[in-house]
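Same chain as my last thread, 354 residues:
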Amino acid sequence: MELRILDSIMHGVLKPWKLDTSNNKRFTELVKAAKKVNPSTCIEQHLQLYNLLADYPTLQKVLETELPSEKTLKPLYFSTGLPMYNNAVTNFYFLVITLEAQRIYNRVLGFSKIYTSQIDLIFHTGKALKYAKVLAKQASIELDMMGFSGTAAQVETSNYAIYCLKHSLIQLYFSIQEQFKDSLEETTTLEDFYLLDLEEPLSGMVKLEKAELPVETDKSEKAVDSTQEKLSFGFKDDMDKLKTVVNQLCFQIELLNEDVTDTDDFIRILTAKNILPGSVKIQIGCETKHFRYAIDKFQPYFTDLSLANIEKSKLFYSKKDTLITANNLSASNSKSKIAPKEKSTIDKIFKQLQ
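reply #2:
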């Protein structure tokens, strides 16, 4: 199968150096609309991507001809670190690339049901791997010409889009290979992929992390796996009260950096039934200890708002723009002897949830 939407970033209508980015408002609209959805099925994700590409009818036609054959939406087997977007346009590219990589992965997983012949299965899986490798190589060459190393200081639209494309393709390649490794005639390691296929030194290699749970392969395990794959904080209270508390926290203690994160995005993540890790940036505007104290106050109204799940979501960033981990939050333990300065203010706000 051809990776036509991802290919369009290198050779088609989504080439970042030819894209008209003057209408920032339009990209903001597309991104906001896409983020209103936290898809749990392949059909929902397919529609999310279709709407995101509303201004690109040729790419929408690709989606119209490649309707999902699977129901359950599965995350890629491997994940990789990508630099954070810093405006609506780079956010648009981040969503298009990561959503499309996930869509392709789920489509390839469905090959085992479409192609009953082992020869056909190997052929079509091999084609997907070939396209991913070739496009990753082309992206690598383009990045070398740009002189882009992936540092935050270099995040501009063109180099950001191609960098995300390259590393998402590598993530996609090894996720597919992992699932079909017993059927493929040959496989490769990440080190050899960089050295022999991309012809890059290992010093530039970005490591891949395995997903915590394997992708479902046995129908008998379907109920267990589909439940385990989902990440949710399990909100169990009144939505209106939650919105009031969040808005008050933002107003009185600057809970969020609202230049980066919309309060609606934060509320959607808190209440989502299935969170896509890394799908949106939630940057706090207060000290981490105040955020930790607010989390402690929120916990009685959630079933799974744990420090570990906050880390797993890969969504939360500190005031200094550092990804928040469980260790960061533990170090900012709000139950320590020294209470945070905003304790009384936060306590008053949370009385509205009682």
